[in-house]
Amino acid sequence: MSQDILLIGGGHSHAILLQKWQDHNINQIHLKLISDTEQAPYSGMLPGHVAGLYSYEETHIDLRRLTKLAAAEFYQDQAIGLDLKQKQILCRNRSPIPFDKVSLDIGSTPTITSIPSAKDYAIPAKPVPIFLENWYQFLATVEANPNQSRNLAIVGGGAGGVELALNMQQRLQKNSNSITIHLFQRGKELLPQQGKWVRKHLSNLLQKRGIKLHLGEAVNAVFPDRIVCESGYNLDTDIVFWVTQASAPQWIAESGLTIDERGFILVNEYLQSVSHPFVFAAGDIATIKNHPRPKAGVFAVRQGKPLFQNLQRTILGKPLKPYHPQKHYLSLIGTGDKSAIASWGNFGFHSPLLWHWKDRIDRQFMAQFSRNH
């Protein structure tokens, strides 16, 4: 009996699933992917693209091509709702798409809804296509008038905000010495999840690069030309990027799926919804019950294979295989100058060798999606 398997989102886990599906196609299974973009960004190389070290093509996966090689259908649209009773996905621009089983890998976006004015005037780091469009436009205005003084603000002092600041600084200095990057962090310290050495080293590096740190400053309003903090501090700005804690889209909570306290889909060790067994989820949008981990690309990459295996096993009526994410993982932060910082617990190391090692791993990862089968 035929079944419709629907993949929502073109994240890393789904890209790996599609690549593996090419060699393990199942008869009478109609595989479909819905994504709001044809080109899926690879998070591991995106900061390097911002710094000008990689081209757009080198950092993006061609989802339309990947689905074609997997003998699957590609729908370019945005999912805006999930009807669990009728088993269908609601889309922005087309009629609902039915499914027998569904998998979600739609990532996350920075929490911006708590400050209404930020939604209007700040640029979230995700969705990536919107972020890149604004970044390219800003680069073009700088190149057109490199001597004009400008303030670029980044809100969020976690790993994402710090890495973005360093890579933007490297790219902008090629065109202008008149831009000041300001990094705002609500807490008194940057990178609260990292070890002491990494926190101190990166704080020193940011300041050495001329990036202004605003620690203990909570931004509570964003205007077209300035931001305002709870303390009353004001800064005139030309552009504001928002890189705060990750959040899930509201329609996930409204669907009736069991979620965690932050709105992400709660899944079991098989990457299967704890409330609806026909729903799978991976990457940032999923939280594994009893094994919560940071929202990091490394986990999305590692979940690709077990997601593929368990989706096929559930179709074939075979027992599912448990996946247990590692407790500790190596975090690599690129500094935009072909060097990187490695963080493991309380230990850290900064070297160009780390970047070259990371570059080789990233290029190997991307190469698997350009092969023809």
UniProtKB/TrEMBL annotation:
Q: Name one GO molecular function term.
A: NAD(P)H dehydrogenase (quinone) activity
Checking InterPro entries in the record gives: FAD/NAD-bd_sf (IPR036188), FAD/NAD-binding_dom (IPR023753), NADH-Q_oxidoreductase (IPR051169), Pyridine_nucleo_diS_OxRdtase_N (IPR017584), Reg_chr_condens (IPR000408)
The keyword Flavoprotein is annotated on this UniProt entry: yes
The FAD/NAD(P)-binding domain covers which part of the protein?
Answer: 4-304
Alphabetical keyword list: FAD, Flavoprotein, Oxidoreductase
- Supply the PROSITE patterns for this chain: RCC1_2 (PS00626)
Co-factor(s):
FAD
Q: Name one GO biological process term.
A: aerobic electron transport chain
| Keyword Oxidoreductase appears in the UniProt entry | yes
The family annotation for this protein states: Belongs to the NADH dehydrogenase family.
Question: Which NCBIfam families is this protein grouped with?
Answer: Nterm_to_SelD
Q: What is this protein called?
A: Pyridine nucleotide-disulfide oxidoreductase family protein
